[in-house]
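Fold it.
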Amino acid sequence: MIRVLYVIATLDPAGAERQMAHLARRLDRHEFEPVVCALTRGGPLEEELGRAGVPVHVLHKQGRWDLGVVRRLRRIIRGTSPRIIHTWLPTANTLGRIAGLLEKTPVLIASERAKDAWKGPLRRAADRFLAARSQRILTNSQAVKSFLSEQIGLPADKIAVIPNGLEFDATASGSVEDPSPTGEVLEIGTVARLEPQKGLSYLVEAIARLPKDMEFRLWIAGGGPDEASLREQVTRLDLGETVQFLGIRHDVPALMTRLDLFVLPSLWEGLPNVVLEAMAARRAVVATNVDGTPEAAIHGQTALLVPPRDPAALADAMVRLARDPEMRRRFGEAGRKRVEEEFRMELMVERTQNEYRRALENSR
């Protein structure tokens, strides 16, 4: 049995964390045995993993510079003796691989999920050092692979692209707590962490630009550090009840079915799960043409893609789809078909297991 230790910062229900949890739960248990370690805190996914019989360790990292977490992680590695350590996202990719190197774990694999242009020279040098000592770097889009090889300097032959996977048993409609739409109001929605990367201030400004004769409502689902400033912006633009903040939701697939139009105005992305969820729910999409997003949603077929930081373009795309129900229907059907063919969870899991097998063979 091949034990795989997954290392990630938290078990919050965000995109990369969900992908990791799905992967750990769905591994072929005749061949692989998953263990999960969260460096900072657990979260809603901890219970989900526990129900699936996946052991979870939480190390309670304190602050940015709690290097003692490496010592605690080394104890976990010694206690579980994994043959593979698979780390996710910047903090875990650094600290997890350092601990794995110190414990001489046979295979180190890192998942890079976005174009982290914020990294300075020291972090980029650390990435190159650790990549040289890792068997594989997994990412979810060609855009991120190009960034890693061309901008960070990681070896392209070590980088494998495995698109995100979606569980279709989680895309069915279900109950939603909010009042039912009347059918006369265009329901526009977004689901995102409320932080600068997601560009939500541009969406709010775009909403303010929509024609006065349109009846619409914007639902913003998610939480994060920008919530207060977004609420202030809504008040300042006199949008009143037009924009509703729903908070963090655990019924996103059901919520998607209640929308007429899904919008994601991100400034950068790896490959956004939430766009796949919208497409699976047969929703037309408006999104920014950044990084891996056009690898998920195809402009003119499943979505209208616009430049980032451009409220006018966002507004124009929303108006175009609002006034063309047939285009919304066509985009929705094409989006569902694309997700079924290209982004099934089974494909993501099998592709990842194949990378594990190749890495183990090469390590020998």
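Residues 170-182 have pLDDT under 50 and may be disordered.
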